[in-house]
Amino acid sequence: MKECMTSAADEVCGRTKGRSKHKETWWWNEEVGKAVDEKRRLYLVSKKSKELGKRNPSQENAKRTNEDKWAYDKAKRDATKAVHKAQEAEREVLKEALLTAEEKGTVFRMARQMGKDNKDIVGGGCIKDSSGLLTVDEDKVREVWRAHFDDLLNVEFSWDKDSLVESDAISGPAECISKEEVRAAMAAMKVGKAGGPSGVVSEMLKAAGEDGVEWVTDLCNAVVREGKIPEDWKKSWLVTVYKGKGDALECGSYRGIKLLDHVMKVFERVMDKKIRSIVKLDDMQFGFTPGKSTTDAIFIVRQIQKFISSRKTFGWLLLIWKRHLIEFRERCCGGP
Hints:
This protein is mainly alpha-helical. It has helices at residues 2-12, 30-55, 59-104, 107-117, 138-153, 179-188, 202-207, 209-226, 262-278, 294-308, 315-332, and strands at 127-128, 134-135, 237-242, 254-259. The strands form two sheets. It has a two-stranded antiparallel sheet. A two-stranded antiparallel sheet has the order 3-4.
């Protein structure tokens, strides 16, 4: 399935080089793009005719070389004029925007926004290690990132595991995954998301139609039946995104995002829906619950703490709050 979808996507859609490392210039427009593309095309033509004239010196080749050189020089001048014209037009737009912002009294807000948009982010090719020394070697930079995320993602807070309530084991044949469940999970997936190690994305799965639904259903049932997952599901691409604040050379100023396989996400959606239909979640559960967030739980606890710590409360309220806080931690965090 993987080779079939990726090869078909390459044949129909092709591949891009990815987003440029540098931001697009503020004055770039379609007219400038056409002028620059024409200049690049004529440069290759001029270079080819020049090499041909060197290999086969003749009056006709020399004339063609001069004509191609003249056409390239003209395209170069036209591209320069197009750039200056676009820059002047954008300056006029910026001037009008500043005048409008001044009338509304938001010129300083606009200036801060412009400064934030044009802020250069450094540190892509180098990073500081745990001792604060700058690392530039590619292998060492990769090792610094590995150590950082290994320490960040694998640290487990201490909690009383014996406090978990024992439940009776449920045994029986594994439930089969139906096409309707896979079809619903695929329809709920968003488009435009980066792919994982296999290269298969949600757009490919949806474009495959009923054949894609059948393939994914067979794969999910094989995983349930055999208890093994594909090798691509065991891997993920880790991408670092700058948080927008802090030292750009510090690992802590970046947020790590894992790019997982999209077929595995379909399987996870199906299993999540099955489990939620069987397990009853407590009202105190905030994590992984639709409409709730752990941020809300933390906010509630802090508000209670702020209310209790005020002078207007009585001592017995403190005992009630402490009892509810312990109960909250046991249910949500798994321990005291």
